[in-house]
UniProtKB/TrEMBL annotation:
The lineage of its organism: Bacteria, Bacillati, Bacillota, Clostridia, Eubacteriales. The keyword Nuclease applies. This is VRR-NUC domain-containing protein. Its cofactor is Mg(2+). It comes from the Bacteria. It comes from Senegalia massiliensis.
Amino acid sequence: MSDTGRMVSTGVPKGFSDLFGVRKRDGKAFFIEVKNEKGRTSKYQDNFLRKMKENGAIVGVARSGSEAIKIIKEEIQQSFS
């Protein structure tokens, strides 16, 4: 929301990931949703991650910094329905 209480669009789709970037060694895009131990992804986040994976990106849900690094290194494989 803006200072006036009106909704403001950031221009990114619903469910867009918390962390995103490009892996330097091969130019592969990554999208990572960050959650705490009990946190769950929304249907919008699941849909976004699934679409990105279908298009060749590295995707995942990380619950720690080390887990995010493992996702980027593709040491952790996750699926999204």
